[in-house]
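step 4 of 6: structure.
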Amino acid sequence: MPELAPLPDLIVEPIVRAALAEDLGRAGDITTSAVVAADAYFSGGIVARRDGTIAGTQAALIVLNLVDPTVSVSVQAPDGTSVSAGDTILHIEGPARAVLTAERTALNMMCHLSGVATVTAELVAAVGNNKARITCTRKTTPNLRTLEKHAVRAGGGVSHRFGLDDGILIKDNHVALAGGIRPAIQRAKANIGHMVKIEVEVDTLHQLDEALSEGIDAVLLDNMDPDMLRRAVQTIEGRAISEASGRITADQVPAVAASGVDIISAGWITHSAPALDLGLDFGVTI
Amino acid sequence: MPELAPLPDLIVEPIVRAALAEDLGRAGDITTSAVVAADAYFSGGIVARRDGTIAGTQAALIVLNLVDPTVSVSVQAPDGTSVSAGDTILHIEGPARAVLTAERTALNMMCHLSGVATVTAELVAAVGNNKARITCTRKTTPNLRTLEKHAVRAGGGVSHRFGLDDGILIKDNHVALAGGIRPAIQRAKANIGHMVKIEVEVDTLHQLDEALSEGIDAVLLDNMDPDMLRRAVQTIEGRAISEASGRITADQVPAVAASGVDIISAGWITHSAPALDLGLDFGVTI
Amino acid sequence: MPELAPLPDLIVEPIVRAALAEDLGRAGDITTSAVVAADAYFSGGIVARRDGTIAGTQAALIVLNLVDPTVSVSVQAPDGTSVSAGDTILHIEGPARAVLTAERTALNMMCHLSGVATVTAELVAAVGNNKARITCTRKTTPNLRTLEKHAVRAGGGVSHRFGLDDGILIKDNHVALAGGIRPAIQRAKANIGHMVKIEVEVDTLHQLDEALSEGIDAVLLDNMDPDMLRRAVQTIEGRAISEASGRITADQVPAVAASGVDIISAGWITHSAPALDLGLDFGVTI
Amino acid sequence: MPELAPLPDLIVEPIVRAALAEDLGRAGDITTSAVVAADAYFSGGIVARRDGTIAGTQAALIVLNLVDPTVSVSVQAPDGTSVSAGDTILHIEGPARAVLTAERTALNMMCHLSGVATVTAELVAAVGNNKARITCTRKTTPNLRTLEKHAVRAGGGVSHRFGLDDGILIKDNHVALAGGIRPAIQRAKANIGHMVKIEVEVDTLHQLDEALSEGIDAVLLDNMDPDMLRRAVQTIEGRAISEASGRITADQVPAVAASGVDIISAGWITHSAPALDLGLDFGVTI
Amino acid sequence: MPELAPLPDLIVEPIVRAALAEDLGRAGDITTSAVVAADAYFSGGIVARRDGTIAGTQAALIVLNLVDPTVSVSVQAPDGTSVSAGDTILHIEGPARAVLTAERTALNMMCHLSGVATVTAELVAAVGNNKARITCTRKTTPNLRTLEKHAVRAGGGVSHRFGLDDGILIKDNHVALAGGIRPAIQRAKANIGHMVKIEVEVDTLHQLDEALSEGIDAVLLDNMDPDMLRRAVQTIEGRAISEASGRITADQVPAVAASGVDIISAGWITHSAPALDLGLDFGVTI
Amino acid sequence: MPELAPLPDLIVEPIVRAALAEDLGRAGDITTSAVVAADAYFSGGIVARRDGTIAGTQAALIVLNLVDPTVSVSVQAPDGTSVSAGDTILHIEGPARAVLTAERTALNMMCHLSGVATVTAELVAAVGNNKARITCTRKTTPNLRTLEKHAVRAGGGVSHRFGLDDGILIKDNHVALAGGIRPAIQRAKANIGHMVKIEVEVDTLHQLDEALSEGIDAVLLDNMDPDMLRRAVQTIEGRAISEASGRITADQVPAVAASGVDIISAGWITHSAPALDLGLDFGVTI
């Protein structure tokens, strides 16, 4: 995997700030303010309680910095790292009040995003030596799409469209309303700039032929079994990128990948990935 | 379950608006704008593809209204309803462009929140005739806490604290930094108003005794097995509300509930609930 | 009074930023920009012109920092301090332009919040050796509730509910619409989580009996004279927290407190406290 | 008083929305949602409990509309109206839940702003047949300046500068830093456009001469007694607008106004006006 | 030109709202409020004072609606229409105060965007029968990119990338820092999803060969004269989309288009288009 | 020209942040992240490619700081400086990724604002020895008014009203709706505070007489030729400030200025100024 550049803080910070504000409410951390002395000191870190792949360290760093810029953090396991239960991900030193106040928001971010990265990495591993790349969809958690797509990349996957505006994806409903694949593609081409790709969802090889004859960038092969996928790939003959889609689980990935498709997309890696279990421990050493 | 009042639109609308903006990006739905005629009409609805419990209809209504106020929606299965695969949840009529543009954001909201409601309802069912109530925690998806807690209520659960500011929850780290359970509780009482409850996490019956002797509202019985929970409940003798916590699965709920605890809390019902599979279909009839 | 922890800057900063933007308008401080040289230097401070209790120093620090982070401020009289006319509260050194531009917004914050703290401290003093605590209500200045409740704490008071969502307070109108105190309390209990307290407003001892028989956390004894309050406290017998309410002035506090109530609440300490007179002076020494 | 045009809703709505959100918190009005039936109906209104002058009806209308657009409100006493205890200000009909949820925010707005209007009207009345107009200053409640200045107009006053950017006001500190009144005025004139007025604060008749000789639009006569004000007005001879300032109370207004000044400004009418007592009553008739 | 779908109001409204707020300031339209009676009525419209192509009607409609939803507007010349001096674009009826308050913001939007559409249409006309399409760049007015790109489409052009995130465009500086065209393209391909296109800027035919040999979607032919463009198009042989760029004026378009390039891009149509002169007139008839 | 104080960062930063976010979109600078190494270093600057007058350096500094606070910038040509093609305006050192990501937003700001400053400076030069000052209008680019008015000042001009709320400008439509110049002025005077100026648009000398007889601060002499302007100035005799307006080009300024008017206003210097051509170059030396 190539080096994974962080997202701009300008994009991540408002999301993190809102999440922290959601937890602080109107009065802040009333337990910690009352119970913990202002000069109590924390030395410890965020530690994995299960094996997995890490994402969300940037968000956690911003949470801690927003609560108290004097907290110092060193990243032991950057986004994309595979960790084992017990590994330290972030080593943290600073005022105990700040760390306890930031704890839950930082963990909520990291556990969720590491969960996404972890299931993505499992699918990537299942591809084996086939060429297929794992990609997510627009079935993301509301208001976390950018972070989840970054987590998919941390897990070794790649991104699909970021939204409705940065790619044409003609689905079955569009085809029905346009009166066929051919007019749908023609209308799309008449409206878009030269930097926008066109992908068309097809359910049959007949539809595939019609789409390819118009000239498109990619085809979404929806809910096809591995045999039909193989025949579709043969039909395409490199004239378009092939994407297999439709509730594909880790168990099914090897057969799907063996069909020769370029892309395997899965919505569940963003909308149904279980959180990776991470926790904040006192006194961890690096 | 008592009637579930909707959240104020003032709270839900900004979250929904941000989610829709995230999908529309800078140029809006370029596929639908190009491919679907302005006067195409949609009649259909959002339909369950699996059995489950519904939440998130308010968010979906707001999404559709934000895209086009002329879309008309009738709610067939309000929040808290159990549905079977094939049931219609929302019946929708209106301009096809608007419905297709709103589809993904509305479904992302409803699938996620119905997933939360569904697993909550499973835990509630597992409680059986015991008195325990199911509650969520602050381990929620960032920026969706209010909606997820409402979904928990749709599933028959109740809410815990909404954040750091509306309840005192003294955890193990607080106790350690305060120098004991007793000083922690005393400091909390000296700082808070008369409408704030105090809950203390205890790991042993000895700690439990210490907490009860100071007078508290609730105890969090962390990671205790059913036998120990039963002994804790006997020790408490109604002097505080008892909450069992610690990765409790649906399989474990019956035994935990049988211990006599008042509350069973579970973080995973918000952070790791798989999305409930819902879809948008043309031509559904009510 | 226990140590008063500051509010999170994350909460205070947006309020302060908006207030400063309100004063800067579209073109900033055109007088100072035109009239005062860029290298003019200010050494002086914010000084009390009347006796009182201080609140709002955090807001003032943020104002000055937002205008120019090179301004240096040392807090001579932190929130909660009693000051006499002439005392220096903040000592300030830095570019004169920045200090003059920040002056009015910083003073507007501090004078208002110190006004709240000052009248609160007067009520607290009037309680004398009685156990009653002074609390504010939701009758706060729009968009300043968090800061005003913090100012009440600076004056030695405690906070009531922060809003409609963090406590149940069943008032006369709720009782009327619910068909009685009993059904109102029962409905409340069926809907809320275990961390939410229930308080009920009662106007008569008969209503008080009805409320206590259902089991509640607190009673609001509305507009009762000291004799009736005393009888109410005797009736309660420790089964609930007692709160006296209803336009209670400093003169009335001793008699009210002597009735034995736990809480005396007053809306006017937030909505009608006169500002404490503070000013910015050149050349003050510490 | 000329007809008072309302402020643009675009300006008022965000302030009101924020105030309502502050009260709703994360979960909304949990008492009303639990206790009051969804179909309960409210007919009544907001009623004066003391005599005074009304302001803030626009804000109250927006609060009610934001909570539930089906609530219908008729304004019985528009901004600027003098009311007596018992008079109905707004007649309200609609869902009881919505009205109870909106009540406190609407009242907090109206009580505060009517308080400002009421003390302003008292000062205006004290001016009697003299020509002086009452004006407020920039000593306003943070983030409520626009609404408070409108309330001053409702009380018969006029507005001063709205902020640091829409008028030049050279104060004592500016003069000191500029090296005198003359250079301060000259620098101001060199920097500003032709639509900006210049006012200068003077403490002595000597300073007044110096300011007038440079040509200015207005002079702020700071902390002068009525005799000195009279001499200042004679000195000015119509060459500038005269403004008397400095903790002027209602008792002092007649003498100050009799001095012949054009403007009497008072900061306390915005920062220290006690709230006017208004309440929500069931069943009021118009 | 295919039908031009409007942008989502959700995208346009916040931009328009901010622009209106910028003009209203803190006190609104004080001239109109003072001078024009509340019941004065306006009937008239926005009229062209020069020939041109219209864009921005959606923004103008939103401005008027935000000021007063009772203003009624009928669009006589939708976006993309060519108008002559004297033509009515919007016919407007409603309260005169609202129309005068909205006038400048609505005109500022429409004049600017119609200016962009007008120069775009001139370039499109200059292309004649050649296949080249006119496109804009990221050299747009800050915070108006979405509206300006829509205006380009109104003028018959198409859009380029919307930002840094929806297409790869490898420029000279990227090539220099990557150590050549080849490694730059390879790194790009390793990092991106299948829906992202890659364009490379080339200055010479040698660079063009290198880029084509790696396989790319488009080439930016920077600052080449028509002869060199023709040779580049011949070299490309349909293997990539060709884009001519570099300060191309309307006079130069025919020769550039005749070279056979697919795309002619021009930054000045967004950053330097003079506003189209439009005005608000009383009493216009349709 | 007196020293030009910068605008408060509090005002400029949100505009710049939004512009940067507009360019970064959801995924940031995907080209630079993929192609340029994290440790690549940039040394160079922003350089003029044409002669002109500079504005917008503050915005550019904020852009670079927002992308990466470790980038160091030294300003070689502050706002208001005349530069020749080839001159360096900002010298920049820092991580190459950050500089390339910030490049376009910084240039879009500086090129636009320097374009405004440049045409303003041309008009100022054309005034010659006459006393007239050049001013802009409210015909500004939406959401950039504050920055454009600052750019006008950088070019040697002065500002007119900032919006609808900080000055009375009675235009022809107001006069028509008020029933004449006289009642319009009288209504204005009855409504406003003492710090607001009144300007009236007049088209004829008869209207001018009527306006002057009521006493006003300024007159807008609309679309008058130099001869008529001269007669208007003679009529005014210093009783009001005179402003000439109406599509005045640089060629016409000398004759207009010679008429003796105080102010020449031009909308086109903000809405139709062509961008000044600036670029980012590697390796520039100071």
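step 5 of 6: annotate
 - Chain B touches chain C at residues 2, 133, 135, 158-162, 165-167, 187, 190-197, 199, 217-218, 241, 243, 262-263 (CB under 8 Å).
 - The first helix of chain B runs from residue 9 to 24.
step 6 of 6: archive
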